[in-house]
C-alpha cells in the first residue's frame, strides 16, 4: 500500500534508517544515570545525586550553529557541525560554573538523507562523549517545500547543575582580578554571514584550495570545529584552584568586548591588550580579502580568543598554567580596575545586561 505521507515528500523510512545509523554513537554517550534508550518520547536521567548538593541550581542553554551549515552543505561535509553545536551550548553553561548533564538536538531538513543525518548526529554524540554529557534525545524533522532537499539547520539544548555557593558571575569579580584568555580553534560558529559575503565577493569556491591555506580546501578550513572548553573548565573548577575562578565569558556572537562586559559588575572596567596574542591566520586572511582591519571585526569574530576567565590575581599564573597543561593555551589579557568617569571609549554591557566596561587597546602581536 502506498504511504500517503511519502506522497507529500516525507520519508518516514529514511528517518528510521537515520536513527539506526546513529544509534551506536548516541548510546556511547549514555552513563548509568540515563534512563531508557533511544527512540522514546522523552529522554530521562536519574538525578538522585542532586540530594548531595546544598542548593542545586539547574542551568540551561540553547543554541544553533548559524550559517556555518551553508558551508557544510556546499562541500557536502557534515561530520563536524555536531561538535560546533555542542560547543555553542555546553560552553555557555560552564560560564556560570555548572557541569552539563545532558543534551538534546533538533535537525530540520528538506529531505532526510540517512547518511547525512547520521553524520551530523554522530558529530554531536562524539562531542558529547568528549565532555561527559549524555545525548538523551533528539528530533529530525523533514520539511519538504519549506527547505530545499539539501538544506538543513541544527539546534540543541542542554541542562547542567551548579551548587549555589559555587555560582560564577559578576557578583564575585573584584578590582585587581586578572582576565585570562583561552585560545580558540578558529572562527568557531559566529560571524559566518560576514565570512560567506567575503568569500562570495572574492569569487572563491569552497571546494577548491587557496594559496593561503595550503592543501586544505577553503571549505575545510572554514569548517574547523569549535573548541570544546567544558571538560577542561569543569576539571579546573573541581580542582584546588577552582575557588580562584570568579567569572567566565564565552566569546560568541557580539564579539570580544561585549561578551566580557556581560560578566563584569557595574563600576569596573578592563583594558584587553591586543598585544598579548596573535589572531589566527584564518582571521587575517579573511579580513585581508574583505579589506577590513582586524579591529573592525572584533565585534563579529573571536580573533583567536574563545573563552575568557576572570580569576584572583594571586592565582592567575597557576590557573593559566593549569589550563594550558589541560590542553588549551591560556594567557593574560588584562586586569580589572575601577571604572573611570568617562566610559565613551568602552563597551558597557550587552545582550540586555548593564554590566562592566571593556575596551580593546594597543595593536595585535
From TrEMBL:
<comment type="pathway">
    <text>Purine metabolism; IMP biosynthesis via de novo pathway; 5-amino-1-(5-phospho-D-ribosyl)imidazole from N(2)-formyl-N(1)-(5-phospho-D-ribosyl)glycinamide: step 2/2.</text>
</comment>
<dbReference type="Pfam" id="PF00586">
    <property type="entry name" value="AIRS"/>
</dbReference>
<dbReference type="InterPro" id="IPR010918">
    <property type="entry name" value="PurM-like_C_dom"/>
</dbReference>
<protein>
    <recommendedName>
        <fullName>Phosphoribosylformylglycinamidine cyclo-ligase</fullName>
        <ecNumber>6.3.3.1</ecNumber>
    </recommendedName>
</protein>
<keyword id="KW-0963">Cytoplasm</keyword>
<comment type="similarity">
    <text>Belongs to the AIR synthase family.</text>
</comment>
<keyword id="KW-0067">ATP-binding</keyword>
<dbReference type="Pfam" id="PF02769">
    <property type="entry name" value="AIRS_C"/>
</dbReference>
<dbReference type="InterPro" id="IPR036921">
    <property type="entry name" value="PurM-like_N_sf"/>
</dbReference>
<feature type="domain" description="PurM-like N-terminal">
    <location>
        <begin position="57"/>
        <end position="162"/>
    </location>
</feature>
<dbReference type="GO" id="GO:0004641">
    <property type="term" value="F:phosphoribosylformylglycinamidine cyclo-ligase activity"/>
</dbReference>
<keyword id="KW-0436">Ligase</keyword>
<feature type="domain" description="PurM-like C-terminal">
    <location>
        <begin position="174"/>
        <end position="340"/>
    </location>
</feature>
<dbReference type="GO" id="GO:0004637">
    <property type="term" value="F:phosphoribosylamine-glycine ligase activity"/>
</dbReference>
<keyword id="KW-0547">Nucleotide-binding</keyword>
<dbReference type="InterPro" id="IPR036676">
    <property type="entry name" value="PurM-like_C_sf"/>
</dbReference>
<dbReference type="GO" id="GO:0005524">
    <property type="term" value="F:ATP binding"/>
</dbReference>
<dbReference type="GO" id="GO:0006189">
    <property type="term" value="P:'de novo' IMP biosynthetic process"/>
</dbReference>
<dbReference type="InterPro" id="IPR016188">
    <property type="entry name" value="PurM-like_N"/>
</dbReference>
<dbReference type="GO" id="GO:0005829">
    <property type="term" value="C:cytosol"/>
</dbReference>
<keyword id="KW-0658">Purine biosynthesis</keyword>
<dbReference type="InterPro" id="IPR004733">
    <property type="entry name" value="PurM_cligase"/>
</dbReference>
<dbReference type="GO" id="GO:0046084">
    <property type="term" value="P:adenine biosynthetic process"/>
</dbReference>
